[in-house]
Design goal:
By secondary structure, the chain is of the alpha+beta class. It is 42% helix and 15% strand. The strands form four sheets. It has a five-stranded antiparallel β-sheet. Strands 8-10-11 form a three-stranded antiparallel β-sheet. Strand 4 and strand 5 form a beta hairpin. Helix 5 crosses helix 6, helix 10 runs antiparallel to helix 12 and helix 12 runs antiparallel to helix 13. About 5% of the residues have low confidence.
Length: 350
C-alpha cells in the first residue's frame, strides 16, 4: 500500500518544494485551481488554509481510495501540462516528462510500486503483481511485465556489488540501444538505474526452439541463414562484435529474426579504461571460437564468424558440430581453428 509519507513526498515534488525542482513552486491558490480544473472539485482558497502539502496529500488519499490516483500522474506527466506550467518547447517538455517519470518511479519503488505508460495514460502498478518470473540467463532474471507485455531483464541482486558485472549489464543495454535503427536487432527501451534492469520487446521463441521443434524446409533455412549473416555483417560495419552468438540468443518476434543478448558485446569504437569482463565469460562452449576460450580480449569479428559457422551447422542439422549439409565448405572455412583463415565479413560466407 502507498503510505501517507510517500504521498507527502509526491506532494512536495508537485508543489515545487522538492530539491530536484521538477515542477514550479505553487501557492495554495494555484493548487486549488489545479484540482478544480482537472478533478472537478469546488474548493475555494480562503484563510485559514491547511498547509499546502496537507491539502494535496488529503486529495491524493481520496484519489488513491477511489482508484483515481493514476489520473493525477497522467495529468502532471503529460507533455501539454508540463509545457504550460514550465513554458517549455515540446522537445524540452518530453525530456522533462521522462525525467519526472524516472524520479517518481525512484520514489515509488520503496512502497513496491511504479508507473507504466499504456494506452495514452500512466498506470500505477504494484510491482510484485505486475511482474511474472520467466527464466534466468547469465547474470539476470527475466520477467514478463503484464501491464505492458514487455520483457524486463533484471540483474540478480547477488551481483549488485560486482562493478564489472554491473558495467557489463549496462553496456549490454547501451550497445543494443545503439543498434536500434537495425530492423533485425531486438528492441530495448528504458534502463532503470535504481533497480539495474531494462525493458525490451517480447520474443515468441528462440532459434534453437524453432529448429528443434518444427519441420523447417530448406528454403526457409537458407532465408534464416542469410538474414542472420546480413544482420551480423551490419553490426560489424558499425564496429561492434557480439562474442556470444548462438541459437539461444537469436529470436523470432512476429515472424522476424531478431538478434539479442549483447552481454559480451564490445564496441570497437570505444576505448575502455580496463578489462571489465570476468575470465569465465567466454560465450557458449559449442559456438565459441578457440581464441575466445583463452580470453575475451583475444576475440574479434572473426570470432563471431566462427560462431556463425556453428549456427549454420545447427540450422541445417540440429547440431553445431555436424557439417553434412550443402554449406559444408562455408562452415569449414568459418570454423577453422586459426582465426586468420576466417573472413571477417559475415556477408561473404554465402
Amino acid at each position: 500500500m502507498i503510505t501517507e509519507e510517500m504521498l507527502k513526498t509526491i506532494a512536495n515534488v508537485f508543489n515545487g518544494d522538492d530539491e530536484n525542482s521538477i515542477y514550479e513552486y505553487k501557492t495554495g491558490s494555484d493548487l486549488v485551481r489545479f484540482f478544480n480544473q482537472y478533478f472537478n472539485r469546488k474548493d475555494t482558497y480562503k484563510k485559514p488554509f491547511p498547509s499546502r502539502w496537507r491539502y494535496v496529500v488529503d486529495i491524493l488519499q481520496q484519489l488513491l481510495q477511489t482508484k483515481k490516483l493514476d489520473k493525477f500522474f497522467t495529468v502532471i506527466l503529460s507533455i501539454r501540462y508540463i509545457q504550460t506550467e514550465l513554458h517549455l518547447s515540446e522537445v524540452e517538455a518530453v525530456q522533462k516528462s521522462n525525467d519526472a517519470l524516472l524520479y517518481f518511479n525512484e520514489l515509488l519503488q520503496y512502497d513496491g510500486y511504479y508507473l507504466v505508460y499504456k494506452d495514452d495514460k500512466f498506470i500505477l502498478m504494484e510491482r510484485d503483481k505486475d511482474l511474472t518470473y520467466l527464466t534466468s540467463g547469465g547474470y539476470a532474471d527475466i520477467y514478463l511485465q503484464k501491464s505492458t507485455g514487455l520483457i524486463i531483464k533484471k540483474l540478480r541482486s547477488e551481483y549488485y556489488s560486482d562493478k564489472s558485472i554491473c558495467s557489463r549489464f549496462k553496456r549490454e543495454f547501451d550497445i543494443t540501444k545503439s543498434l536500434s535503427s537495425m530492423e533485425l536487432i531486438i528492441n530495448v527501451y528504458e534502463f532503470d538505474n535504481s533497480r539495474l534492469s531494462y525493458s525490451m520487446e517480447k520474443a515468441d521463441m528462440t532459434l534453437e526452439h524453432y529448429i528443434n521443434n518444427y519441420e523447417v524446409d530448406l528454403e526457409i533455412k537458407i532465408k534464416i541463414i542469410r538474414l542472420i549473416l546480413y544482420t551480423i555483417s551490419n553490426v560489424h560495419e558499425k564496429g561492434i562484435i557480439h562474442r556470444d552468438l548462438s541459437p539461444t540468443n537469436i529470436f523470432f518476434t512476429n515472424g522476424n529474426i531478431k538478434v539479442a543478448d549483447f552481454g559480451l558485446g564490445k564496441d570497437l569504437n570505444v576505448l575502455y579504461s580496463k578489462q571489465t569482463l570476468n575470465t569465465n565469460a567466454v560465450g557458449q562452449l559449442f559456438y565459441c571460437a578457440p581464441e575466445q576460450l583463452l580470453g575475451l580480449k583475444d576475440s574479434s569479428k572473426r570470432s563471431d564468424v566462427f560462431s556463425l559457422g556453428r549456427i549454420i551447422n545447427f540450422i541445417m542439422t540440429k547440431s553445431p558440430n555436424k557439417i553434412s549439409h550443402i554449406f559444408r565448405t562455408v562452415s569449414e572455412k568459418s570454423t577453422h581453428e586459426s582465426s586468420e583463415y576466417r573472413h571477417e565479413n559475415a556477408q561473404y560466407l554465402l
